[in-house]
Amino acid sequence: MSQARNSLTRSVLSHAILLTYTIIALAPVLVVILNSFKTRAAIFNQPVMPPLPSTFSLIGYATVFGRGNFALYFTNSFIVTVVSVVLVMVFGAMAGFALSEYRFKLNTLMGLYLAVGIMIPIRLGTVAILQIMVATGLVNSLWALILVYTASGLPLSIFILAEFMRQVSDDLKNAGRIDGLSEYKIFFRLVFPLVRPALATVAVFTMIPIWNDLWFPLILAPGEATKTITLGAQSFIGQFLTDWNAVLAALSLAILPILVLYLIFSRQLIRGLTSGAVK
What is the distance between the alpha carbons of residues 2 and 236, in angstroms, rounded to a whole number? Predict the structure, then answer.
């Protein structure tokens, strides 16, 4: 009886902690969305209250779609995010397969070298990156952002995928070799489908920083034709006057795609995070 009571207490405590963390994490997002449907006066006077008939307003969304080029900003962010995530997953899976499958002299050193990329922020190399993009003529192009995001996402992708690929049965891969499959076919037909939970984990951890990033779009692609959604939202922030209705509306619209993608990949993400926890 005492053991069951202790187990129940731990379960209640764990759920209470998780629920508290969830509320703290979601509260700012909820406040942004609620205030995007309110008048300017209500945003400052009643910031945590839901929109009422007297305070409800769509002026922020009207401004975003009327004055701002939101469709273009959204398209740019979508292209950059999708292409970068796909490249990170494909190249990360290839490198992870090589590190986990083949044994060579620099295998361990190569793994450590790639792990350093996780610990060192890529923003420390902003000046050098900008010089490279200027020299190659890629400034104010989406490819400048895609290349930078792909490079920054590969270390974590390789680290995660290599660990997952080490758990793939050697008997399965050797059976494919006996059947005459090439290494490419073994990778794409046998190994790649088995690490889908890890790929979902990589996708989620990669796409959120890319979608939300303001630093590199501001430095590498500040032109009107290449602005991302986060940089486009800055156009409503002035030196002396800020259109908070439009800013909150733009941020609310920017949240929706990431939320939808997270819900799509949530099951695979949880499987990827918990895989190997119980043997």
Answer: 60
Instruction: Decide if pLDDT at 5 tops 80.
Output: no
Closest C-alpha among 165, 173, 151 to residue 272: 165
Q: How far apart are CA 117 and CA 114, in angstroms?
A: 5
Tell me the average pLDDT across 149-157. 91
What 3-state class would DSSP assign to 237? strand
Homologous superfamily of 70-274 in CATH? MetI-like (1.10.3720.10)
Domain map (residue ranges) of the chain: 70-274
Helices H / strands E in the chain, number of each: 14, 0
**pLDDT grade for 133, boundaries at 50, 70 and 90:** very high
Lowest-confidence pick of 58-67, 70-79, 141-150? 58-67
Task: Give CA–CA dist 185/176, Å, rounded.
Answer: 9
For the residues 252-258, what does the mean pLDDT come to? 82
pTM for the structure as a whole: 0.81
pLDDT score of 246 more than 70: yes
Determine the distance from the C-alpha atom of residue 272 to the mean position of all C-alpha atoms in its chain, rounded to a whole number: 15
Distances (CA, A) of 202 to 157, 221, 273: 6, 25, 10
In the block, which residue shows the tokens 């992870």? Answer: 96
In our burial notation (b when 16+ CB lie closer than 10 A, e otherwise), range 129-168 reads bbeebeeeebbebbebbbbbbbbbbbbbbbbbbbbbbeeb
DSSP H helices, 102-236, are: 107-119, 126-136, 142-165, 170-178, 183-185, 192-194, 196-212, 215-220, 229-233
CA distance 191 to 176: 11
